[in-house]
Write a structure and sequence with these properties.
single chain, Hsp33 domain, CBS domain Like, 6-stranded mixed sheet, 11 helices, 17 strands, about 35% helix
Length: about 325
């Protein structure tokens, strides 16, 4: 089914997995921003991957995946809450014209889009919903390269990250187009993973076997087949326990209050300069493209009011 994440566990081995399919959730992102085809592919794969990683965490908060580089695309960001509410955005290089963006070849890899000079990096942040005093979000950073050179896909980047940062063997299969973003994760757990195998004997070959089966998946199959069909085709001979599926959805957390807090951080002098020049301040949210306008009266009220406590809206695009 669409907009659903399904968890499963292999009964005779410490191996777990997930399959996710995003349609409406992904379409909500694309309805708000026009992206060239290769950017759609990479950003959609990031959304599927972010849902898969977030669903594995026992964590109340937000998983934020950011990729930075110096190619035609400068930044890709996906945020996923513990309830699988999601939003995403991409920022192209300054000066890249719409014609140049549209001309990017559809098969441009992650390395070509964001890491042509080998300086790209992926940042994964876990931001708790309720922070203790002095608590900072956990953050892991991994370059978009390994010892053999630039990593070509989101799946390769995250497999590299999970192996080196979390010490967990993880395999990912991801795909996205203008209709769907889909993905499958397999992960080998430490030790016996807490399972109680049949006949008290672990099937030590399960990990290699299911990874080999996953490796037969093509991008076309991922995008064209429903998750249940893929699962039956791959693992019909395996003894698997399924968990209750979880729904995903698009949700942007921007608000006028958060934008106001951001303007207050910029300072009265800078905002008054914009008002004097343009007559108003206009902010567009990079995630949902919502427009927020502040006229001179709004600004005067903003800076005369007590401090706002809602926080700052990330990735806002200030347009005067």
């Amino acid at each position: 089914m669409n907009d659903q994440l399904q968890k499963f566990m292999f009964s005779a081995a410490p191996v777990r997995g997930e399959i996710v399919s995003l349609r409406s959730t992904w379409q909500e992102v694309l309805a708000r921003r026009r992206y060239p085809a290769p950017v759609q592919t990479v950003l959609g794969e990031m959304m599927a991957a972010c849902a898969l990683l977030s669903a594995n965490l026992k964590f109340d908060g937000t998983l934020i995946m950011q990729i930075f580089g110096d190619g035609p695309v400068r930044m890709l960001v996906v945020q996923c809450g513990s309830d699988l509410s999601m939003r995403a955005t991409a920022r192209l290089a300054d000066g890249l014209t719409p014609e140049e963006a549209a001309a990017l070849p559809a098969d441009t890899t992650l390395a070509g889009l964001i890491n042509p000079n080998g300086k790209g990096r992926c940042v994964i942040t876990l931001d708790p919903a309720s922070k203790q005093p002095g608590q900072q979000p956990y953050q892991g950073i991994v370059p978009l390269n390994d010892e053999d050179g630039p990593l070509a896909s989101i799946a390769e980047v995250l497999e590299h990250y999970m192996h080196h940062s979390e010490q967990l063997d993880t395999r990912l299969w991801l795909a996205a187009n203008g209709e769907r973003a889909v993905g499958m994760l397999l992960q080998k757990l430490p030790g016996d993973g807490g399972i109680v195998p049949h006949e008290n004997e672990l099937d030590t070959d399960t990990w290699e076997r299911v990874c080999t089966l996953g490796g037969t998946l093509s991008r076309e199959e991922l995008l064209e087949q429903e998750s249940e069909t893929l699962f039956r085709r791959l693992f019909w001979q395996e003894n698997v326990r399924h968990f209750e599926p979880v729904q995903t959805r698009f949700q942007c957390t921007c608000s006028r209050g958060k934008v106001g807090a951001m303007l207050k951080m910029l300072g009265r002098e800078e905002i008054d300069g914009v008002i004097e020049e343009r007559g108003h301040v206009e902010i567009h949210c990079d995630y949902c493209n919502q427009r927020y306008e502040f006229d001179p009266v709004d600004v005067a009220q903003l800076f005369s009011a007590p401090g706002l406590s809602e926080g700052v809206a990330p990735a806002a695009d200030q347009r005067h």
